[in-house]
Amino acid sequence: MLTLISTMRALAVRQQSGEALRCLHLTAVTEAARKGTREKARKKKVKVEVKKVGFIPHNQRDKKINVKRADKHVDDSWKQVPKDDVYVGRYYRWPVYTVAEAIQCHRETHHPTMYNVPNASLNVEIELNMQGEKATRFVDNFQRMAMIPHKFDHGEERKIIVFTKGNEEIVEAREAGATLVGGVELIKDITAGELLLSDYQFIIAHPNILPELVALRGLMKRKFPNPKSETLGVNLAEMVVKFSNGISYSATKDEYQQNFGLIKANVGTLDMDAQHLEENIRFLLQDVNSMRPKRDGRFITRVLLKSAPSSEQLKIDPFVYIPEFYDKTAAKVSREAKKEAEPEPQSKEAAAASN
């Protein structure tokens, strides 16, 4: 075998006429080939360090794998309507209840003879279509506070600090239930470190103290009062009541399905009056609907009422309280009303005069 390899370094070609041999040397070519082969062999010999990883659950493994996931938007309009009370649920449409009927069903399951939790919380799950105005755009996650007409024990500590000038505004905020109310002297105490803003969950301000409040922008960061979050306004009493008694909720997009959003909120307890619970749900749905994008189609797709420890979830019709589709005329009117309600920006001369 070695003899054969060595003889291949010179290829002898004999001509048919019987002339002398002509040698064709391929030494450079074979050396180059051997060099490349050796480099490949060296690369193979390099040890690859394998990092030992502990057990990873199947739902947390490599997210780059393109797994076909089920659409979270439930559309059962193609299914048939059940004709009696006994049927297999997955083959038929979800039954739609009124709010009063759903509350009564939950009260029956939480009766002392069953779960025995008559004062259980009534929770609402709102499913959203987060599709934006364009096909490639989606509504960002948002967090809001919905004002409700009938307060209940939400089980949260909500301390509210209010910044304003003027004796009338200070008295108004205190009577509404604010934890701490003050003006320039309050800003000085915070700057000196005598008062911590982290002790308060909500910060509300009147436009008349905005020039002085700018000094605390670095400390407040995202909590700095602004009209979009409805923490800056003239009607301090309404804002204080809203943030002390309102429903705090957040809409979050699904990690794998960007056009699906979900809101979970508590609207009261089962021992409250059914009409009061219904009004709280109506105010919550109207507040959520105010965030809808300017496009055709539904924004709120499905609403379910739940009450732990029962696993029962009852579907209600949200379009009794809000419009089903986007109305351009109504949206224009609401935008104009918001502009009229917003306080006018204070001029430099007015700010100097107030100082």
TrEMBL record:
The keyword Methyltransferase is assigned to this record: no
Keywords: Mitochondrion, Ribonucleoprotein, Ribosomal protein
SUPFAM superfamilies given in the database record: Ribosomal protein L1
Presence of keyword Cell cycle: no
Superkingdom to which the source organism belongs: Eukaryota
Gene Ontology CC annotation, any one: ribosome
Residue ranges of the region described as Disordered: 333-355
InterPro entries: Ribosomal_uL1-like, Ribosomal_uL1/biogenesis, Ribosomal_uL1_3-a/b-sand, Ribosomal_uL1_mit
Bias kind Basic and acidic residues: ranges: 333-347
Annotated localization: Mitochondrion
Family stated for the protein in its record: Belongs to the universal ribosomal protein uL1 family.
Protein name from the UniProt record: Large ribosomal subunit protein uL1m
Lineage: Eukaryota, Metazoa, Ecdysozoa, Arthropoda, Hexapoda
